């Protein structure tokens, strides 16, 4: 008998007449010197969708090779030119539009891992990115077709979760994605004087040394692996990060090295690497003199503070900015003057879509032992139904159940979108209840389940994709 609780493939939404889709791997030319024409056309179209310039062959080659290195799958929607020719706008499209090989919709997915805090380490995750729709072809089912096709592939491949980052916050909830991590943009004043500027309450152990970015490949890999293993909410990184952090790729000029990049590495007292920071000076026309931190990855809190202390003590610098800081940063509490640390803005980063309730929750962290009933509603029909969650020694066992078999247990009823938001602990069960997103769950049940599910610290994802 089929398991009715096993993940089911969603219905794939059709495209409007005159459109076709194709899914293919990012690929190089036979000589390996560049990317093939289909990948190049896809990459150019996608970059234009995010208002980037029309990239040169060299720039596309550099971008395309990172897609290949991460084994990214590209999905594109194309206009059927024979069909378009029958429309009144068809001749104009043929005359002034982009060539046939350039799609009107783009979509990328590939696999990394997500740290959900569970006892068995990070779990596999299908990452989704580079989603664009040509404004001339909106409301023709392009996004819905690409997304449902991708989720269907992820279910077929046995992935427990999918994740994405968004440019617009109101689009992806209808596909079951919930906002799961946030990040802060911060400004740290580094002016002189222990009462007014940057001063730590205690000096971190070890030493920070200036480093040549091009020599950091191994340091970056090892440091991020340790950070990823200890940080709930962390997503495995794509090849682009390695290239940017070693100065081989300038995010402001894809064809060039980043000659302005600087780096430093924290050496722990036992001689091990504690982490690294990469940064650039914003220029002498900037007032006050400012350092922009690109990336700061530390294996522990002491290394985190030590790297910040190094930045704060750079000559002729009075401010540091960072756009990817955690919501709860030990640096602020470690400062003599906490007002020198300012949060300029908060924004969502990682959005999670649960594809398999059992696999996803068994990989999650929990605060205390206990048992409760869970009902998940999934409009796409991928993963829903009734489950019993039993947590013992911090590990969950998820059992498909009938509604009647859970009588007497505290009960939680929520959508798969809300499950995505609570999954990593960024949103609490109590907050979901206060927001009216828990169906018929009672105050008493919410309180009991909160003690099991709600986590004491915020998740943090340091990876954009």
TrEMBL record:
Q: Name the source organism.
A: Nesterenkonia halotolerans
Domain N-acetyltransferase spans what residues? 64-201
Superkingdom of the source species = Bacteria
Q: Gene3D superfamilies from the xrefs?
A: 3.40.630.30, SCP2 sterol-binding domain
Q: Which Pfam families match?
A: Acetyltransf_17 (PF17668), Acetyltransf_9 (PF13527), SCP2_2 (PF13530)
Q: Which PROSITE patterns match?
A: GNAT (PS51186)
Protein name per its UniProtKB record: Acetyltransferase
């Amino acid at each position: 008998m089929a398991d009715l609780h096993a993940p089911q493939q969603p219905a794939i939404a059709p495209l409007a007449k005159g459109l076709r889709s194709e899914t293919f791997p990012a690929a190089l030319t036979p000589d390996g010197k560049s990317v093939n024409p289909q990948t190049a056309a896809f990459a150019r179209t996608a970059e234009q969708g995010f208002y980037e310039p029309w990239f040169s062959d060299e720039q596309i080659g550099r971008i395309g090779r990172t897609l290949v290195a991460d084994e990214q799958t590209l999905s594109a929607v194309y206009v059927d030119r024979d069909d378009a020719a029958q429309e009144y706008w068809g001749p104009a499209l043929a005359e002034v539009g982009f060539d046939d090989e350039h799609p009107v919709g783009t979509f990328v997915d590939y696999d990394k891992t997500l740290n959900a805090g569970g006892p068995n380490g990070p779990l596999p995750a299908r990452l989704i990115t580079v989603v664009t729709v040509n404004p001339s072809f909106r409301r023709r089912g392009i996004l819905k077709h690409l997304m449902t096709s991708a989720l269907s592939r992820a279910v077929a491949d046995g992935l427990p979760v999918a994740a994405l980052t968004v440019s617009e916050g109101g689009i992806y909830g209808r596909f079951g994605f919930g906002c799961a991590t946030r990040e802060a943009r911060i400004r740290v004043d580094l002016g002189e004087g222990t009462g007014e500027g940057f001063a730590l309450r205690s000096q971190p152990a070890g030493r920070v040394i200036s480093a040549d970015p091009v020599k950091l490949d191994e340091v970056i890999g090892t440091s991020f692996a340790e950070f990823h293993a200890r940080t709930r909410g962390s997503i495995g990184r794509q090849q682009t990060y390695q290239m940017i952090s070693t100065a081989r790729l300038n995010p402001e000029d894809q064809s060039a090295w980043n000659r302005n990049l600087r780096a430093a590495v924290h050496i722990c007292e036992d001689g091990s690497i504690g982490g690294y920071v990469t940064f650039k000076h914003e220029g002498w026309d900037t007032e006050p003199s400012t350092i922009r931190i690109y990336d700061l990855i530390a294996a522990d809190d002491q290394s985190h503070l030590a790297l910040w202390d190094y930045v704060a003590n750079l000559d002729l610098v009075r401010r540091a900015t960072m756009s990817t800081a955690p919501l709860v940063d030990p640096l602020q509490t470690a400062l003599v003057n906490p007002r020198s640390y300012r949060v300029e803005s908060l924004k969502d980063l990682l959005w999670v879509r649960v594809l398999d309730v059992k696999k996803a929750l068994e990989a999650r962290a929990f605060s205390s032992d206990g048992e409760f009933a869970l009902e998940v509603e999934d409009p796409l029909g991928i993963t829903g139904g009734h489950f019993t969650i039993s947590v013992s020694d911090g590990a969950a066992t998820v059992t498909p159940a009938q509604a009647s078999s859970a009588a007497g247990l505290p009960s939680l009823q929520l959508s798969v979108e809300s499950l995505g938001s609570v999954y990593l602990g960024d949103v609490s069960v109590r907050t979901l209840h206060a927001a009216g997103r828990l169906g018929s769950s009672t105050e008493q049940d919410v309180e009991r389940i909160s003690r099991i599910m709600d986590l004491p610290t915020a998740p943090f994802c340091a990876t954009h994709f």
